[in-house]
Design brief:
This protein is of the alpha+beta class and 317 residues long. Helix content is 31%, strand content 26%. The strands form two sheets. Strands 1, 2, 3, 4, 5, 6 and 8 form a seven-stranded mixed sheet that branches. The chain has a four-stranded antiparallel sheet with strand order 9-10-7-11. Helix 2 packs antiparallel against helix 3. The longest helix is centred in the middle third of the chain and has 16 residues.
């Protein structure tokens, strides 16, 4: 049995706009009628994806972990990725069984389902070496807005479109301590957040986004922290008061340099100055009744090595 880690992502910035002139609700998969620009960054919180020979000689997929017990297989994005791969290539899926052990919470804005779908696409592409990269990119875009990011070559990227267009690969802040926290009893619905956003549009901050990208390049932790931004926050907090409480807890903690909501989900994250501060904040969050993970920003995108690739430290303290 071999395994890989499908890492979660956070949004260091997120600027959402209505998609001008769109009349087709199917035009964008994850956020119809909207376009965005966002700095995505991988974190070390990850689902574990293992695979081996299928005993019955047929392709199979299973998934365990909090919140997935009642999810029909047909609604699992990783399963849909496998079916889309077979349809697009015209080939029968290999006789392997893939198992996903979930650690990334559902409905948290951390794109765990998208990470799993990308992992399945990469596994199947490795088994069938004739599949070109453009086909994988097309499949990723058809499955969901975040999936394309997990096929990128950098752990930090400026994404556009609906989150499916790579605009620039950025220098990852490998090793920067992060706490991610969420209320497991209060997942947030992305469609509800976007409906609330449409009622009260929030301003974008592209200047801050550019400044954050520059801060990553210069390895300036304080500047990265000062330019965190998510203009879906007010909409998400109106839909979920629990998500607001999570953010306020992290943002007000003395160990936190700054905090932000990730994506449109219920999880927020805090950047911390030190691993000790991060670990203390994660413990405090759990003591306050939240689910929390002490993690760090990732420096590697490697999924298919069968082990964790060593992070490339690039001057971050």
């Amino acid at each position: 049995m071999s395994f890989i880690r499908a890492r979660a992502k956070i949004n260091l910035t997120l600027n959402v706009r209505p998609l001008s002139g769109s009349s087709d609700p199917g035009q964008r998969v994850a956020s119809p009628y909207h376009e965005l620009s966002s700095v995505f960054h991988l974190i070390e919180l990850a689902d574990e994806v293992s695979w081996g020979s299928a005993q019955d000689g047929r392709f199979g997929l299973s998934c365990t972990g909090p919140g997935v017990e009642d999810l029909p297989l047909s609604e699992n994005l990783a399963w849909r990725a496998a079916q889309a791969f077979a349809k697009s290539t015209g080939r029968e899926l290999p006789a392997i069984h893939i198992h996903i052990e979930k650690h990334i919470p559902l409905g948290a804005g951390l794109a765990g389902g998208s990470a799993d779908a990308a992992a399945v696409l990469l596994l199947l592409a490795r088994a069938d070496k004739t599949v070109p990269d453009p086909l994988l990119s097309s499949l990723a875009a058809s499955l969901g807005a975040d999936v394309a990011f997990f096929l990128a070559k950098s752990a930090a990227c400026l994404m556009g479109g609906a989150g499916d267009e790579l605009r620039a690969a950025l220098r990852p802040a490998a090793g920067l301590p992060v706490v991610v926290a969420w209320d497991p009893a209060a997942p947030v619905s992305t469609p509800e957040v976007y409906r609330a956003f449409d009622q009260h549009l929030a301003p974008v901050d592209t200047a801050g986004e550019a400044a954050l990208a520059s801060a990553l390049k210069c390895a300036d932790i304080e500047q990265v922290a000062s330019h965190l931004y998510n203009n879906l926050s007010a909409a998400a907090f109106s839909v979920s008061p629990a998500a607001r409480k999570v953010f306020e807890f992290l943002d007000g903690a003395p160990q936190s340099l700054a905090a932000a909501l990730s994506g449109s989900g219920g999880a927020s994250f805090a950047l911390c100055a030190s691993p000790d501060g991060r670990d203390t904040l994660a413990r405090d969050a759990r003591d306050a009744g939240l689910s929390a993970c002490a993690t760090e920003l990732a420096g590697s995108t490697s999924m298919l090595s069968g082990q964790i690739a060593p992070d490339q430290k690039v001057g971050w303290k």
